[in-house]
Design brief:
about 260 residues, alpha+beta, Thrombin, subunit H, 3 domains, 6-stranded antiparallel beta barrel, 2 helices
């Protein structure tokens, strides 16, 4: 230190020694810098992976919310259609929701969230926004069971809206559509004809939409025509339905 302070030549020696010392310092610090860089890289990678997972989870949540919004929108559309339809029905009506659907492939029955506490009665007509769905066959205090018109045990009196020709429509267990029973091959019924309730039965007043004729088959070897009908009601889609108290049964409801 004394020589470095008083001897000028020591500055040159110090300058000459700084080159190998700098290399030595760089060699010593390089592994440390490398470890720091690796640590930063790993930390950045982990952050990106976690951020990606968070974004995917948020995307799933948003997609679930969109699906819920679509379901709510569809339900609102159905309720609006039911309200519009209810204004065209004479007598008292009540909106009900489906609680369950029969799991038996050969039965077409549903359970509603209205029962005897709501004055529901056996034989009561059930409609959706498009047409006749069926009738109540069992009533409990809080729920009721409905036999749909495409059930093989169902039957209702219908007529052709075009000319008033009457027939009996029954459910088909295999096609889930309707068939017209014992219709002569000379009957004036054609593909595309709209069927409505005739009012001749005990439960359905006249004029409710039932369905549309999809095919008429005339077989010379059979006494009757084979006629299939597509139901007007959305039997496999509607969640909201209308319970109808026709005017003739209005006295059953006491408020």
């Amino acid at each position: 230190m004394v020589l470095d302070k008083h001897v000028a030549a020591m500055a040159q020696i110090r300058a000459a020694l700084s080159v190998p010392l700098a290399s030595l310092q760089y060699a010593v610090s390089w592994p440390i810098e490398l470890v720091d860089k690796l640590h930063d890289t790993i930390s950045t990678h982990d952050s990106l992976v976690q951020e990606n997972l968070d974004l995917k989870a948020e995307q799933l949540r948003l997609r679930e919310q969109v699906q819920r919004l679509l379901a709510i929108e569809l339900e609102n559309d159905q309720l609006k259609a039911l309200v519009r339809s209810s204004t065209q029905i004479s007598g008292k009506v009540l909106i009900a929701q489906l609680l369950a659907v029969s799991a038996d492939p050969f039965l077409s029955q549903v359970v509603l969230d209205k029962g005897s506490h709501d004055n529901v009665f056996v034989g009561q007509p059930v409609l959706d926004a498009n047409g006749v769905m069926g009738q109540v066959t069992q009533v409990d205090p809080l729920t009721s069971r409905v036999l749909l018109i495409n059930d093989p045990h169902s039957g209702l009196s219908v007529q052709v809206a075009r000319n008033g020709v009457r027939a009996i429509a029954v459910g088909d267990a295999y096609s889930r559509q309707l068939r017209l029973l014992n219709v002569p091959q000379t009957a004036d019924i054609h593909k595309g004809d709209v069927l409505i309730t005739s009012g001749m039965g005990e439960h359905f007043p006249e004029g409710y939409p039932v369905g549309q004729v999809t095919s008429v088959t005339l077989n010379p070897g059979l006494p009757f025509a084979t006629i299939t009908v597509n139901p007007a009601a959305h039997l496999d889609r509607s969640r909201g339905v209308l319970l109808v108290w026709p005017a003739i049964n209005a006295n059953r409801v006491k408020r």
